[in-house]
Amino acid sequence: MTPRGLIRTVIVMIEAQHLTKRYGDKFAVNDISFSVEPGVVTGFLGPNGAGKSTTMRMILGLDRPTSGDVVVNGRRYRDMTAPLREIGTLLDARAVEPGRTAANHLLWLAHSNGISARRVQEVLVTVGLADVADSRAGTFSLGMNQRLGIAAALLGDPPVLMFDEPINGLDPDGIIWIRNIMKSLAAEGRTVFLSSHLMSEMAQTADHLIVIARGRIIATGSVDEIVSANATPSVTVRSSDPDTLNERLVHAGAVTVRGLDGELSVSGLSSAVIGSIAHRADIPLTELSTHGASLEDAFLELTHESTDYRATVGASTGA
Ligand code: ADP
């Protein structure tokens, strides 16, 4: 137990304050403040065009904020003397000279940052590329390029790691590998910040989420917190008399959606209450099943005023 009066200090590794980036009269990022802390995977979730890359580019000093500020370990990126030792990043896995071998690419980076050649061998092993260290990056699959990019990010053994859409375009094995390495880097006590527009993937990978849409942060919290605050579970019910049952359920305050073959998807009432309403109406049920709410449901609820986000979410999840 924390002794009375002792204040626990949280070390904030990435901290943005009122960060804003405007292009002409369009806000790519609009007055966002957030912190990314060590020891957990923090997901930066939002549809394409939400402002994720722009935020990450401002963290790295590649884009200058219109207003506001962002620091890593208390310092702006451009003020760091050895940035690779403070923050490792992967913004674009394809940004590797294709004629260079994996080992040479890393040796060149290591050399220019005063990092030993031994460390290159270590990171090649960590990402599973030791066997292809002497192959040219141009012959690599996207998944292998992602691994090479992560190896480069790890070179300086930095406490903070940041990856922009690392899951994009990977096969299922690659996705599981990325998920596991993110979790193990966080378990080592590092700050791990990754962006994605893929909600189901983020739900499985991130411990903490910062949800962004149209340049603004619309929710922060654990996946469970965001889902339970913004989406309700639904109950699927089938019966011999869907019309009467629907009438009774709506009368009791439910929101229902009619499906095929008389199926009703019901929210706002528990399965126990639905069961007893059906019983009182003498309507036999052939199915009564509860479905937990998903991050997709929560995201749609959070962005319900915007029809273009519905289209984006549907397109990205195949929903
Ligand atoms: P995300 O990474 O979430 O897909 P981005 O940060 O790339 O989103 O983009 C956010 C918004 O800012 C988009 O509408 C995009 O078109 C716009 N944007 C990004 N970079 C520029 C730029 N250099 N000039 C003009 N608009 C830009």
A few lines on this structure:
It contains twelve helices and 13 strands. With 319 residues, the protein is α/β, with parallel strands linked by helices. The chain has two domains: 14-228, P-loop containing nucleotide triphosphate hydrolases (Rossmann fold, 3-Layer(aba) Sandwich); 232-292, Alpha-Beta Plaits (2-Layer Sandwich), CATH 3.30.70.
Task: Describe what this molecule looks like in 3D.
Helix 3 packs across helix 4 (117-126), helix 4 packs across helix 5 and helix 8 (223-230) packs across helix 11. With 319 residues, the chain is an alpha/beta fold. The chain has a six-stranded mixed β-sheet, sandwiched between helices. A four-stranded antiparallel β-sheet has the order 11-12-10-13, covered by helices on one side. It has a three-stranded antiparallel β-sheet with strand order 2-1-4, with helices on one face. The protein has two domains: 14-228, Rossmann fold, CATH 3.40.50; 232-292, 2-Layer Sandwich (Alpha-Beta Plaits). The chain is elongated. Strand 8 (208-213) and strand 9 (216-222) form a beta hairpin. The chain has helices at 52-59, 83-86, 102-112, 117-126, 142-154, 172-187, 199-205, 223-230, 242-251, 271-280, 295-302, 307-317; strands spanning 14-23, 26-36, 41-45, 67-72, 87-90, 160-164, 191-196, 208-213, 216-222, 234-239, 255-258, 264-267, 285-291. Bound molecules: adenosine-5'-diphosphate (ADP). Adenosine-5'-diphosphate binds at residues 23, 28, 46, 48-54. The site of adenosine-5'-diphosphate has 10 residues, from helix 1.
